[in-house]
Design brief:
It contains three helices and nine strands. The protein is of the alpha+beta class. The protein has two domains: about 90 residues, no CATH class; about 110 residues, Immunoglobulins (Immunoglobulin-like). The strands form two sheets. Strands 1, 2, 4, 6 and 7 form a five-stranded antiparallel β-sheet that branches. Helix 1 packs across helix 2. The longest helix has 18 residues. The radius of gyration is 23 Å and the shape is elongated. The model has no long low-confidence stretch (mean pLDDT about 90).
Length: about 200
């Protein structure tokens, strides 16, 4: 008799684009792609890993549940994505995400609202949720919305951000102008291209 399952993976997660399946989505049809995605992440850290090495990374770091050791109902246990990837020797990277975005009239009519014909300044607070410190950080702002012009300089430096939650705000506020033909309300689309040690990311 073959010992199955080999591993267990999460289900009961919110999903989109799965046809008539409900959300949250339960069962092996949800757990199997979850496990496959983690295997794909492991492969991405080192494309030279063999299927056997990936399997070992998944099973040797799984969170043991139910009966101690490998058991009939959970196999080696629940896959732990972070531990599995770390077991391959991957060092991780910095990973910056926006936290707080503040845009103010600069100058404007003082009503606290960004209106057509006004200029504005914007600060963007970032958080490093990665596993490596983010250093030499800079951000370049752009906009694809007609009538929105970024006022030079379009690049600002950020302080270094420690791994695991360090935060920082652009040292010099970004500034932009709103043309007189821009109607209210209008959604303004911005893109912030971040460059930091060992990586580049577009938000």
């Amino acid at each position: 008799m073959r010992q199955k399952p080999d591993i267990t993976a999460a289900d009961g997660v919110s999903v989109t684009g799965v046809g008539a399946f409900p959300s949250p989505f339960f069962g092996t049809s949800a757990a199997a792609p979850h496990a496959a995605a983690i295997a794909g992440l492991i492969k991405a850290t080192n494309p030279l890993l063999t299927p056997a090495q990936i399997r070992t990374a998944l099973t040797s770091t799984a969170i043991d549940i139910l009966a101690p050791g490998v058991d009939r109902d959970s196999g080696a246990g629940i896959i732990d994505a972070l531990s599995a990837i770390q077991s391959t020797g991957a060092t991780g990277t910095a990973f910056l995400q926006p936290v707080t975005i503040t845009a103010l009239e600069d100058p404007g009519d003082g009503n606290g609202t960004l209106d057509s014909g006004e200029n504005a300044s914007m600060t963007i607070q970032l958080k490093n949720v990665g596993t490596v410190n983010a250093t030499a950080v800079s951000g370049t702002l752009s906009s694809s919305t007609p009538g929105i012009t970024i006022i030079p300089p379009d690049t600002s430096a950020y302080p270094d951000m420690a791994a695991g939650g360090g935060t920082g705000t652009n040292a010099t506020p970004f500034r932009f102008s709103i043309a007189g033909f821009v109607t209210c309300p209008t959604t303004i689309n911005f893109a912030l291209t971040l460059t930091y040690t060992g990586a580049q990311r577009r938000l």
